[in-house]
Amino acid sequence: MSSAVSAELAYLSATDALAAFRSRELSPVELLTALLDRTREAEPVVNAVTERLEDEAYAAARESEQRYLGKGGGELRPLEGLPVAAKEEQPMEGRSITDGSLLLKDEIADFTHPVLQRVAEAGGIIHIRTTTPEFCAAAFTQSKLWGITRNPWNPEYSCGGSSGGSGAALAAGYAPLATGSDIGGSIRIPSSFNGIVGFKPPYGRVPAIAPWNLDHFCHDGPMARTVADCALLENTIAGPWPGDVVSLRPKLYLPETFQGAAGAEGLRIALCVNLGGYPLDPEVEANTRAVADALRGAGAIVEEVEIGWTLDMIRQAALAHFGGIMGPDAAKAVEESPDLVNNYIRTFVEKTTGGDLSFLDGLHIEARIYAELGALLERFDAMICPTTAIPALRADDDYTETKVVVDGVELDWYLDMALTLPFNICSRVPVLAVPSGFASNGVPTGVQIVGKTYDDEMVFRVGAALEAVRPWAYTAGRRPAL
């Protein structure tokens, strides 16, 4: 296979790959080879992979190849032969489960996450596992265990976190699909920084594992380079699971195809630029407004709105929540092994423990936050807003001392640059994160499409319309210069 052909296959969409498999123009083995070649080429710069499962992946690809040839028995499955990158946080039986921490470097999982089970049962091939920050507790991806994962578009910048390895792998052409999880923006921040598509499902739509399935901020979800591919993976992993009491019945199926630009016709869409109190980088704001203009051009009725939130209100709710769940868990690690944990974990503990607000106080604030959003969304089909206030964080900084400055405003904590936390607080709303353009530093920017509670189909409809009228990098043939 020539290097030019291999490079082009690395950015083939999942839906196009399935069509090529069915027509026998491409085999799963050929696609896997192209992706692994691309991984070996770019990985010295990107550093997004914790483990390659090459032997198992090739065995599965050969089995899928036989299915497409009508040999060996077995019907074609929804993801038949598609390579999928898996976030290392999601356990695979018999394999490492470190959460990016030296404290867990020898831990081996004794079960497989339901999301990864469903990928395999659908014919997907998990060929690589991807990096996270320690305990998935940062909006960048670096750790003492794995080093720094960089943004394929500009390696001086971060790929985001905590599903940063999955986001970077998609951007770099390692896989057409990837899994992620999101407790404060961990799917959506990497989606913005890497110029990809990520979905934070509403709480309970995709099963999770105990005890985190009981944390309403927590969501496992799909990541991809196109809206259709993201929907394909979401349809695979969603649905009730006997191990998760909050997993929803019946299973929701998203449409296999969307209406494209016509899907925006007549929709009422709210544009909320700063979510009440977030300062915003001018380039991020300009790209967000360009998205709104594109939807207007497609026939949507877009109205700019304000919401009665403040950044302090959002921060208080989040810190009360994390202070009751993640904070004490991280504090135990810092106390027992202070030299092994990353500095940003110590900062996370300082921020989330010892505060004056109880978990119950936080719930009261959460209720006020949703009351504002619920009333606003009652008037609209969906809302769009930026994903992050800045194009990206620096890759080599852990932001334990550095202050993020946005349009002249110094933030109290670097995480205040993410406009994602409100929708973990309002956890039943679906949010599709899609690209909005590029900043002058070469890094992508993004917007969130927020729907009414459990109205998943609408955010995909809006995303597909936007993709049709304002194609982003990968659909327009633009690639990182790695």
UniProtKB/TrEMBL annotation:
Stretches assigned to the Amidase domain: 30-459
UniProt xrefs under PROSITE patterns: AMIDASES
A Pfam family reported for this protein in Swiss-Prot or TrEMBL: Amidase
Superkingdom of the organism of origin: Bacteria
InterPro entries on file: Amidase, Amidase_CS, Amidase_dom, AS_sf
Similarity comment: Belongs to the amidase family.
PANTHER family linked: GLUTAMYL-TRNA(GLN) AMIDOTRANSFERASE SUBUNIT A, MITOCHONDRIAL (PTHR11895:SF7), TRANSAMIDASE (PTHR11895)
Protein name: Amidase family protein
